[in-house]
Amino acid sequence: MLRKYTIFLLLMSGVFSCYSAPLPSWQDGESRQAIVSFVASVTDSSKPDFVPPEDRIAVFDNDGTLWSEQPMYFQLQYALDKLKERAKDDPSLLSSPVLKAAIEGDLKTALAGGVPALQEIINQSHANLSVSEFQREVRQWLNSAIHPTTGLRFYDMVYQPMQELVDYLESNDFTVYIVSGGGLHFLRAFAEQRYGLPPQQVVGSRGNVTYEVMDGTPIIVKTENVLFVDDGPGKPIGIDTHIGKKPIFAAGNSDGDYQMLQWTTSDSPSFGLLIHHTDEEREFAYDSPSHIGELKQGLQDAHANGWLVVDMKKDWKTVYPERP
Amino acid sequence: MLRKYTIFLLLMSGVFSCYSAPLPSWQDGESRQAIVSFVASVTDSSKPDFVPPEDRIAVFDNDGTLWSEQPMYFQLQYALDKLKERAKDDPSLLSSPVLKAAIEGDLKTALAGGVPALQEIINQSHANLSVSEFQREVRQWLNSAIHPTTGLRFYDMVYQPMQELVDYLESNDFTVYIVSGGGLHFLRAFAEQRYGLPPQQVVGSRGNVTYEVMDGTPIIVKTENVLFVDDGPGKPIGIDTHIGKKPIFAAGNSDGDYQMLQWTTSDSPSFGLLIHHTDEEREFAYDSPSHIGELKQGLQDAHANGWLVVDMKKDWKTVYPERP
């Protein structure tokens, strides 16, 4: 009797997991409903909006869309930590005013020089090592580095509702790409393990690389200077270069995602989604003005463009995943 | 009785098609056997060389590897045909010595200026139109343009044995990419229809593009000048940018593919394949010196590097597919 009951329970749990509602960390409101309705309409071959699986391309910004980005892009935090490490071995780094300020945490001074200053920081922290060595260093850092205000590992500051959205789209035969202003090689160091997105589904900013044969072993070496910035109008260009198809779903959180959403939603059916950071208790609250992830034009035009604005505070039951 | 017999035949044909030998246009010799053995060893989970499907990346050069490339790259022939067309509308093109020679078919004079001359021809034939408009023009051309010596459409000058190889790898859960010195947008105009390879599985040379909004409609516009040349050491770099994983199978035909094969076969298990153009009757015979697709270093090092050299004349039963 007990055994039969156990089997019954197992069967029922199977039934429930098959039919469990998608996006469990989303409040059951208009935002969740809009997403589910869109996916239903493009996956139902009897509907006029049906899209065949090979054209179900979804693109997601990373910083501020898949994980947090305050008080500074996590990759910039990585760069500063690496600089400090390098300065221990090579104190001559401290003779550069930009690097000295950066190492001391005085970002305002360090970045006052604009793009060339940022370039100097990136060169000193990201260049002159092989791609595989760089990615090993990034993984080591993500494994241990702790966010200054939440006390969480940066690696664990992904948004649980967005991870569910990625998984939900994939389970509906979408191919999901990250399209981020962050570095291509930086993102790929963790995207597969963290988001389940393999390297070929990552589009990002890129620096120069060279192909070299060292002692008979060929390697790809990251060299100095940025080659391509995958932000703003760079996002549709990055999508064209890497994917070659117009997506039907785009998610972002800042005006750097505006053109990606504009490009995606210029054909129908399509879906544009903007994360609005409204939750200062559970995450951060900011839109415009903001030193990072400014969202102004996107908010102004979202209604006219038919884009969904997700209110983190209202729409999400949880922000970060529970630690295992 | 007749009906039963018909059903029996249908069943048997099903059985035979399931178990038909792969690569039917390849002679049953060492080359075919080497490919089949490799695929068997990396797809059998009980073997030490087993590679999980997500890491079964195969890369193919296009010109001279998937289709012919003599007497000139087909894309260059396209450029010349487009130039002639444009010169009809705009005779001022004839005032440029390079373009005038190119339009008159005097390639030796036209290309005497080296890269800047080629750049001028590419700019005038490939730039200042949207990606989708460009690809429409390429498809129109491929639909009708005839090769000067074979009388076949360029579009039909793909190698049947190589198409079978692409299909065979895909049926063994490889993901197959084109990695070509040819233009990214040019290749994508026909790769899906011709080879069954979607745009995101095409890596190629690229020119500049911009993102523009014209009368409210966003478009990607091809602008002037080449940005990235996917040839020689550019091939492993293109693979790193687009795929982010080292392939386990690489096929090429010229020294422009050397680094791609070198990179691919620097880890084990892996397979490097070079097409040797030995068949002047059915295709063309050339290796070194050659004005196109020179193969010298590759032939010299193939044995030491463990690369398979495919002898077109001996190894292939057919070259081009039969016209439907």
From TrEMBL, chains A, B:
PROSITE patterns: PROKAR_LIPOPROTEIN (PS51257). InterPro entries: HAD-like_sf (IPR036412), HAD_sf (IPR023214). It comes from the Bacteria. Residues 1-20 form the signal peptide. The keyword Repeat does not apply. SUPFAM superfamilies: HAD-like. GO terms for molecular function: hydrolase activity. Keywords: Hydrolase, Signal. Coiled coil: none annotated. Pfam families: HAD (PF12710). This is Haloacid dehalogenase-like hydrolase. It comes from Alteromonas aestuariivivens.
